[in-house]
Structures are given as structure tokens and as C-alpha cells.
Amino acid sequence: MNLFYIRYFVELAKEQQYTKAAKNLNITQPSLSHAIHQLEEELGVLLFEKTGRNTVLTRYGEEFLVYAENTIRTLDQGIRLMQKAAHGEGVVRLGFVRPLGMDFVPGLVDDYRKRLQDETVQFSFHTGTTHELVNGLKEKQYDIIFCSRPVDESGLSVLPVGRQDLVVITPEGHPLAEEKNVDLADTLKYPQIYFAEGSGMRDVINELYSLIGETPQIAYETEEDEVIAGLVAHNFGIAVVPYMKLLERLTVKILKLRKPRADRMYYMVCDATAYKPPCVQRFYDYVSEKNEMQEDKFIWNI
User: Fold this and answer.
1) Closest Cα to residue 240, out of 198, 208, 265, 213?
2) Which of 5, 32, 115, 273 is deepest in the core (most CB within 10 A)?
3) Homologous superfamily in CATH for domain 164-264
4) Which segments of the chain are extended strands (E)?
5) Under the GO molecular function aspect, what terms does this record hold (predicted)?
């Protein structure tokens, strides 16, 4: 069914005269008559009838007018939304690992909004493990995610944007607590709180222990940095974690790693094969350009 004909039908229903309706539509009267005839042929009923000098709706025309107006209203709304999106309006759906929700992501978005000086771009915020976020990205739940390096990078655009030093944390009173610096080998004889499968940090720490050819004693596993820190503070074991300001507020001792030196890298990840709406592309470009401006090539460096 021709959408133009539906618009013509609504206009004629309003004006009740072919001459006025054709003038409003910027078409000739024969073109309007042809369109209405084609519409009636397709529907199989008469939509208009003559009453004096006016052209009025039949009862079928009155019924069809309700659907026609709803169709045009919905279509026009969709057109307006698409036009706004084309001008950069819309929602940027961000996913990120929880540690980046304290400072990095809020600060980045705040800087972007101040630079843009435009309230038409909105953001939604979602947290999860790296594994969950990557799956959500592939399922089109997020536009951009910030996380550890994905295990499978096929089809993904992966840009490093931040890093944290890895440290060892122990409960107060622990045999290692009097030290300021330790080797990773010094942790081997103590039970550890370890990152669970699916956490990007597990692969990082596994690789760290593989460098010294050893395997840690895993007492408990969980996915979140903050939970691990809390368990260590309550004497469940020690842990290797990224440094975060939260650690300073807990009853844990923070020990630097002498060797091997290690850090946790964070990445901005998006689906390289997916279309980026203008609002998403602009934010992605902003983060990329901001990253390039840093001397050490990282927006965030603790």
C-alpha cells in the first residue's frame, strides 16, 4: 500500500474537497483522484461519497481513517526520532567492570557532556564481569564496554585506555603484613582469595603465576575486586588485586610487587562489525582522541 496515498486520503477526509486537498498536498486534482481510486480498488470498498458540493467519508472511510491517522502519526514519530539520531541525539549504552564505575567512567562521561554542552545525548550504565560484558556487546545490549582484554577479540575493536598496578593485600597481623614489597613467589605458601572464572583478572593473574612457573593456593573464588578486598580484610586469605582507593579504607596491608612487576590493563571495546549511531560514534571518537593526547597513551593511570 502506497503511504503517499494514505496521506492523501487523510487530507481529503479533512478538507472534504478535492481542489483544496490537492492544493494543500501540492499535487494536481487528477493525481489526487487517481490515488483515491487506487486506494479504494486495493481495499475493495468506497471511502468517499458526494454530498452536495462536499466529498465526505463513507462508513468504511470513517473506520479506515482511524487506522490511517494512527499509521501516519506513528510513522511521523519514527521519522522524527531517526532525524534526531542522525543529528547526534540518542542514548549511548555503556558497560564496564565495577572498579571503573567509581571514577573512570563517570569522569569520562562528565567531561564529554561538558565539552558537548548538549543535553540531548543520554547515557545508560551497566556493570558486569568482562565475560558478561563481551557477551552483552555481541548480543547488542551495549554500544561500548570498558573491561579487561577479551579472550576472543575476533570482530571486536579493542583500544587500551587505562591501567592499574597490581598489588598484594593481606589482613593486618599476617606474616607478610610487615613487608612493604614482596615477590610473587612469597605468596605461594598462603591461601588466596582468587578471581573466579569469567573474570578478566583471573587470566591476568594466572599469566603472572605462569611467569614464575607456580600455582597459587586458592581458598575462595569470587568475581568482584571489592568483595575480594572485603574477604581479605576479614582474614579469609591474601590476594593479588589491582590497586584501588577503596583499599586505603579497609583494614588490609597493601604490598607492592617487586617481581614480576605487573599491571591490569583496561580497554575500550566495541563491535567492529556493527553500525555505530552518530551519538555512539562521537563518544567513541572522543575517547580515542583523548587517549591519543596523553603522553603515556592512557586516559587513566594510577
Assistant:
1) 208
2) 32
3) Periplasmic binding protein-like II (3.40.190.10)
4) 48-51, 54-57, 90-96, 121-127, 144-147, 156-171, 181-182, 191-195, 217-222, 239-242, 252-257, 263-271, 300-301
5) DNA binding; DNA-binding transcription factor activity
